[in-house]
């Protein structure tokens, strides 16, 4: 596969690493690479948290009044802050929640507001996903920071007020499932847990449900990790690093560096968990990466997770010859979950379970063992989130799978490997990467003997990639719409086969979101078999 243009310059790589190193204090010698399982009480924070008096009377700007910006503005206003909210949409488009902010004294500037009055603000809070590396925000924010005004993200604001220790989960894929796994296992063990973050309820909106005796389990995206100068999760989990979001991040290196900010403020009292089933993460842990060596740059105690039978130096894993997932520490094996209790499909999801087991062990230690059967019972009925290998029908002796959340090639490859042939893959949409990044997907389609049905803007590109890797013309079918693709899939998929929507592309050419695309798939399949 050709290297992406972002990978060409060693100077750029070194500059990016240096920038990351500046985020992480010069590390003391790490006391131990493998943390002992500690009791929950050892995670109590002595760090001073902000209180209402710290924001009362101050003037804040909140940029973007969407899912995270609205509760951030409300949170500040309810604590006596003066708030100006900015959004390019009209008040009618913003909806009822924005109108309620007016009753709290929030000033809302809409449309072509030109950020009027922002120069008066003492702090600026960003909603996740604003394209801060592109104009006009890039120059605006650089100017604001040059005045000495602090610019932070919603996650940073929430952290500063959060009374509970945080388990933060990041990675290109698998964050939502792993966050849910951790929360449900800890709840089964009797812990008080609130799940929040990237695709769920923002942490800022859940603070009232948290106290010092609870845990916040938070899904964290790269968008949220921008502008987080003090964010410090007590347990941080990195699942994988894949090419993605290059329409937002200037380079792949900047994207990965932003992901690693999750560890930047951790100390030796904290735990950093790495899934070494991902090649990029494993190379960093094992000192084999040109990107960064985590053992030299991260101060937290390092814990390694793997679902492979014989992982090197993994603490949370499947022990060779065992049918259990558990921990191994100082030669002592402690089983927690039988593999037969895990209902999730795909090797990648078993890796997610290993990372979740590591986090649960680090958070509540022996309490997890005391409640082992409760955890097993909870996981055995675990329901995966919508649009992630979601089986929506078994109609007409076919299995119909909604994996609309697979918006990059690596996710579609993992989906293909989660089912036995025959498979009909529906893929396409708005490509997030250039054609060379799809070569591995073309190879996987051929290896699995799948039929490819293409949709959307990327149809021609995906067909060319598949043909170039040896997929024959009779196995490449073009469909203009998702509905047409479903009809064609029913016609060409043999009995007992699987029809897999795993697009490997964004949805915005034909749909509002990947959720909208998945819901339409579910709806069209249902309609087809109600006739």
Structure, described:
By secondary structure, this protein is an alpha/beta fold. 33% of the residues lie in helices and 18% in strands. The protein contains 19 helices and 20 strands. It has helices at 10-23, 69-78, 91-94, 96-103, 137-146, 154-161, 175-188, 222-225, 252-259, 279-285, 294-297, 347-364, 366-370, 372-380, 409-416, 439-448, 459-468, 482-492, 514-528, and strands at 59-63, 82-87, 107-110, 123-126, 150-153, 166-170, 192-197, 214-219, 235-238, 271-275, 301-305, 316-318, 324-329, 332-338, 390-393, 399-402, 423-428, 451-455, 476-478, 498-501. The strands form 4 sheets. The chain has a 6-stranded parallel sheet, sandwiched between helices. A 6-stranded mixed sheet has the order 15-16-20-17-18-19, with helices on both faces. Strand 17, helix 16 and strand 18 form a beta-alpha-beta unit. Helix 16 (439-448) crosses helix 17 and helix 18 (482-492) crosses helix 19. The longest helix is centred in the last third of the chain and has 18 residues, at 347-364. The chain is globular. The relative contact order is 0.10.
Keywords:
globular, 18% strand, 19 helices, alpha/beta, 20 strands, 531 residues, six-stranded parallel β-sheet
Runs in which pLDDT lies below 50 for 5 or more consecutive residues are 1-46
Counted beta strands: 20
Mean of the pLDDT scores? 89
Return Rg in Å. Answer: 24 Å
**Biggest sheet overview:** 6 strands, parallel
Class by alpha and beta content: alpha/beta
β-sheet strand percentage: 15-25%
Percentage of residues assigned to helices: 25-40%
Number of helices: 19
What global shape is seen?
globular
Strand order of the largest sheet: 7-8-6-9-10-11
Separation of termini?
Answer: 45 Å
């Amino acid at each position: 596969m050709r290297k992406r243009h972002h990978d060409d310059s060693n100077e750029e790589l070194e500059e990016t690493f240096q920038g990351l190193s500046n985020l992480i204090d010069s590390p003391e010698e790490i006391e131990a690479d493998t943390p002992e399982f500690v009791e929950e009480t050892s995670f109590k924070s002595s760090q001073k948290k902000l209180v209402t008096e710290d924001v009362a009377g101050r003037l804040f700007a909140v940029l973007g009044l969407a899912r995270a910006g609205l509760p951030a503005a409300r949170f500040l206003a309810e604590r006596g802050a003066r708030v100006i909210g900015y959004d390019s949409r009209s008040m009618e488009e913003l909806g009822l929640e924005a109108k309620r902010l007016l009753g709290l004294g929030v000033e809302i500037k809409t449309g072509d507001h030109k950020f009027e009055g922002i120069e008066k603000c003492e702090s600026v809070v960003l909603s996740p996903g604003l394209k801060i590396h592109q104009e006009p925000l890039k120059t605006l924010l650089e100017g604001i920071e040059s005045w000495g005004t602090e610019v932070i993200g919603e996650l940073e604001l929430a952290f500063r007020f959060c009374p509970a220790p945080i388990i933060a989960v990041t990675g290109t894929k698998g964050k939502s499932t792993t966050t849910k796994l951790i929360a449900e296992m800890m709840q089964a063990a009797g812990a008080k847990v609130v799940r929040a973050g990237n695709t769920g309820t923002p942490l800022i909106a859940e603070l009232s449900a948290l106290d010092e005796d609870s845990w916040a389990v938070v899904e964290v995206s790269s968008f949220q990790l921008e502008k987080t100068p003090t964010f410090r999760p007590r347990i941080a989990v990195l699942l994988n690093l894949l090419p993605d979001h290059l329409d937002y991040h200037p380079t792949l290196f900047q994207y990965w560096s932003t992901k690693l900010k999750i560890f930047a403020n951790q100390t030796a009292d904290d735990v950093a968990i790495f899934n070494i089933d991902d090649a990029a993460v494993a190379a960093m842990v094992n000192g084999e990466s040109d990107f960064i060596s985590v053992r030299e740059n991260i101060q937290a105690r390092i814990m390694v997770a793997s679902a492979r039978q014989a992982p090197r130096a993994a603490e949370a894993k499947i022990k060779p010859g065992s049918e259990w997932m558990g921990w191994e520490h100082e030669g002592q094996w402690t089983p927690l979950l039988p593999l037969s209790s895990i209902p999730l499909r795909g090797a990648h999801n078993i890796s997610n379970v290993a990372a979740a087991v590591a986090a649960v062990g680090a958070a509540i230690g022996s309490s997890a063992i005391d409640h082992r059967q409760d955890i097993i019972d909870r996981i055995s009925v675990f329901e995966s989130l919508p649009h992630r290998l979601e089986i929506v029908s078994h109609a007409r002796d076919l299995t119909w799978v909604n994996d609309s959340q697979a918006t990059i090639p690596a996710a579609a490859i993992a989906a293909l490997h989660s089912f036995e042939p025959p498979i009909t893959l529906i893929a396409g949409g708005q490509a997030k990467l250039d054609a060379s990044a799809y070569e591995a997907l073309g190879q996987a389609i051929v290896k699995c003997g799948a039929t490819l049905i293409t949709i959307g803007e990327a149809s021609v590109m995906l067909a060319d990639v598949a043909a170039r890797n040896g997929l024959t013309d009779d196995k490449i079918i073009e469909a203009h719409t998702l509905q047409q693709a479903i009809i064609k899939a029913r016609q060409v998929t043999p009995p007992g086969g699987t029809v897999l929507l795993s697009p490997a592309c964004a949805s915005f050419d034909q749909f509002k979101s990947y959720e909208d695309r998945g819901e339409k798939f579910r709806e069209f399949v249902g309609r087809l078999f109600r006739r």
